[in-house]
Model the fold of this input.
Amino acid sequence: MQIGHADAYEGAVTTPEFRGGGKLFRTLLSGVEGHPSNFRLVYVRVDGPIATPRHRHNFDQLRFAIEGDINYGPGQWIKPGELAYFPEGTPYGPEVANNARLGITLQFGGDSGEGFISERQMNEGTALLQQHGAFENGIYHRTDNPPEGVRRNQDAFEAIWEAVNGRRIAYPPKRWDAPILMQPQDQPWIDIEPGVSAKSLGTFGARGTAFALLRIYPGHNHTLTARDGQRIGFVLSGAGSVDGHALRTHSAFASDSHGTATITANSSLHLLLSDMPAFPVAHGTAA
Done:
């Protein structure tokens, strides 16, 4: 069981973001480097401008807005309390914004098994490429004479991924035409047991990717059943515990594959649950 707390700012840094803009971020949870199920959950505040080109991923991504609207394309915004799922292979953008916003971003290996590169790999790839060029508004511009077959101007993440992996990136086929915006505020709560209710927001793909909201009233508890893949929980409000580990507003936890987890509410507890694709069990250290 991994636990992370957003108010533990010892690990927060301001860093140039290769897609443009600066971010104050804290990595709350992370997976196993090199495994198809690798993931990273980031708590991120952006106060400056951001401009990124239209692009796509070879991994899955979820964004949840806590404060301020999050842009993901012309006229496309995630409002506070809403979330958007960006399936691998689905293009979106360009993103242009200059407003204060706070949210979480969960990036994880999708159904294709391409996985997700770790924070360590991302940093190493970025540093390597900066020796030969510069990042600007989501594009990597080479300033040297690149070898034959290497592009001079390239999507920033593509360039980093290829530098890390030593091969051309391969995108999974597009299975959805656009990111899926979920607006749970108008969905009803469904009672699932005394003192516990839920909102199922959707299940996607072939490996059980799913998102839901959970509400537990004070003095009640709920046991999350075992599943093949990992489950990520993020506390939207309230206080309690999961398997004896304290939870508070903007805490996060990752339950182990094939393991249960019991959540207990001290005050009314609201959580976002994310079930990630199920792959064979990963062994190793977090990345």
User: Anything to note?
Assistant: Helices lie at 119-130, 156-165. DSSP finds two helices and 25 strands in the chain.
